[in-house]
Amino acid sequence: MSRTSKSYLGTIISVLERIEAEQQESINQGAVLLAEAVAADKLINVIGPGGHSNLAAEEVLWRAGGLAAVNPILDPGTILMFGAKRSNFIERSPGYAQAVLESYGVGTGDVLVIVNAYGINSMTIDCALYCQERGVASIGITSTSFANNVPKDAPARHPNGRNLHELVDVFIDNYLPLGDAVVEIAGLAQKMGPTSTYCNAFAINLLMMRTAEKLLELGIHPPVWTSANLPEGDRLNREYEEKYLLRVRHLR
Fold this sequence. Notes:
The protein is an alpha/beta fold. The protein has a single domain (3-225), classed as Rossmann fold (3-Layer(aba) Sandwich), CATH 3.40.50. 43% of the residues lie in helices and 9% in strands. Strands 2-1-3-4-5 form a 5-stranded parallel β-sheet, sandwiched between helices.
C-alpha cells in the first residue's frame, strides 16, 4: 500500500470510527423522530442542500438495504450534473430553499433530514429556519469544523452567519475534517482525498438502520428495499413500490 493510499484510508477509518463511537445518542434521538414519522405513515424527507451534499439524499433513494419510506429532495438547482458553478451560486442564494421544500410538500408535522457537511451555506441555513417556522422536526448531519472556522462574513455563508448544528432539533456530527481533503501529495500545495461524502453516507446509513430498530421496537415491520438485482428482488420490492411510487417523486 502506498503512503498516499494508507494515509487516506487511515483518515477515513478514524473519522467513521469516531462517528460510530461518539454519536450514538444523537443517532438514537434522530431515529426516534424518523420511526414516529414512518409509524404515522409519513415520509422521511431528506435534503442535501448544495453540490456533493445531494449525494447523501441519493444514497438513501431506492437503496438496497435502505428504508423505502424515504423522500429525497433532489432539486435541479444544486445538483452538479446541471452545472457545478451553477450549483455553487444557487446554494448561496437566500430564500431559495423555501420554494424547494414547499414544492416537495414538506410541512407542519413532517420531519426533514438536512445533510450538509459544511453546514454554513444559505440554502442549508434556510432549510433549518424553514423547519423552525413551519413546525417541521429537523435532523442535521453536519460538522463543526467549518462552522467554527469560517468567518461569519465569508461569501460561502448565509447572510445571518448562522450554523446548521445550532438550528436543528437533532445534530449528528459527522466530524468532517477542516478543508475536506486530507492527503498531502509531495510537490502539491493543495491536499487531495476528499472525505465529506464518506462522512455523510456513513452517518445517514447509521441513522436509517437505527430507525429500523426503533420501528421493530414499536412492533412495526420496517419497509426495507431488497436489491433489485437479486433473483427475488422485484417480487420482494413490489409491495413497497406500490405503496410509495406515487408518494416519492424520484422513485417513479
